[in-house]
Amino acid sequence: MIMKKVLNGLRSFYQLGLKQHGLALAICTGIGVTCLGSTTVEAATRNINPPALKAGAPNVYIVKKGDTLWDISGKFLKKPWRWPEIWASNKHVKNPHWIYPGDRLLLCTLDGRPLVGRDQGDGCEGIIRRYTGRTTLQPQVRIEQLNNIIPVIPLDHIQQWLERATIVSAENIKAAPYILGTTDQRVLAAKGQQVYVRGQGLQNAQRYAVYREGEPYTTLDEHGKKRIIGIELLQVASGIATQSENDITTMELTQSFNSEVRRGDLVLPEEQAMLPTLFYPTEAHQVMEGGKIIRVMGSISTAGKHSVVTLNRGTTQGTQVGQVFDIYQQGEVVKDPKTQENIKLPNQNIGSLMIFKTFDELSYAYILESSLPVKVGAEIKPPREED
User: Fold this and answer.
1) Which of 153, 70, 78 shows the shortest CA–CA distance to 364?
2) 3-state secondary structure of 146
3) Three-state SS at 156
4) How far, in Å, are 148, 175, 217 from residue 76 at the CA level?
5) Which of 41, 289, 303, 382 has the most CB atoms less than 10 A away?
């Protein structure tokens, strides 16, 4: 019962899905509705003006291995997050939203708006005809390996935090099973060794993850007192339960991740994280104001392009996987040379980020662009509509 309670408590922090090494672009329509896994969300339809093309946008682009959807979008648009508005999804082809290396993308125009689609040998005329439904072509099947799909962002940049990190409430791990010791009486253990786990609910032949507690995330409540809003857990190993006696379970470690297992480490059900499948702009009303970067993962205080950061906004405040935000650095306080007053300069837009994993009150995000070093305390806001 205790293990079931822990698992139920964790489900709100995970999004289940296939752990594959390709991130599929899932666009159900060019402008209308988009899909994130099994979740349906509204796409960016707020913009009346067509997305502005980037200077020197190519009329033809051949997709290469190593490309990402964000990079491809940036070749065509000043605002890459508006990509869903210009992608010509072909409803007559199975998985029309997927892009692969070798695909020939054409920049076309439909009713004065830019439109990008995959060339099937009939140029822009064919792309527009299929996009608008003015075709009688039969459905086609394209056979490709899933790991060839062009990713939204590079998986290796976020894999550690996507697959081997989570944030839970202190309440949810109070009764979690923990490492009691090793079978050979060593203090540390790694892949290939056996450990003893104390706690209820573990089942033989089931896989479990071993987590180490990190620095808790805190905030101040209405009375000015510090409140823990989440505890970060980093996976250090995984293993299989082999036998149980009373509340002691023997577990064989099958994998280690950059650290050895210690006494006191937590043992929880191994979950599979859902990879982000699409980026899209955030409406101002969707997420509660006041969002900030509160931690830079793997660094003390400064982040840059390709860094992973933690935001003080989670599903409770309206965040969703795939949302894109602008980053605003806090303006400096300078002394007016004439009045000698201390004046705070305006906050500066220095980049953008995308949320790739959400929890109750916190989220992990990936910095897509940054013109200056990003510091803890930087604000996040919905992208500006102006191009």
Assistant:
1) 153
2) helix
3) helix
4) 22, 52, 39
5) 303
Compute φ and ψ for 164, nearest 5 degrees. -125, 25
**Residues of the chain where predicted confidence (pLDDT) is lower than 50:** 1-2, 4-45, 141, 143-145, 387
Residue count of the chain, please give it. Answer: 387
Q: Distance between CA atoms of 379 and 369, rounded to whole angstroms?
A: 15
Q: What gap in Å lies between CA 270 and CA 209, rounded to an integer?
A: 5
User: Which residue in 128, 116, 127, 153 sits closest to 21, CA to CA?
Assistant: 153
Nearest to 329 by CA among 292, 367, 288: 292
pLDDT at position 24: 37
Structure token pair of residue 257: 């991740």
pLDDT, residue 177, reads 97
**β-strands 266-269, 280-281: how paired?**
unpaired
In which residue are the tokens 């988009």 written? Answer: 34
- Phi, psi at residue 320, to the nearest 5°? -140, 155
What angle is formed at CA 50 by the lines to CA 44 and CA 52, rounded to 5 degrees? Answer: 105
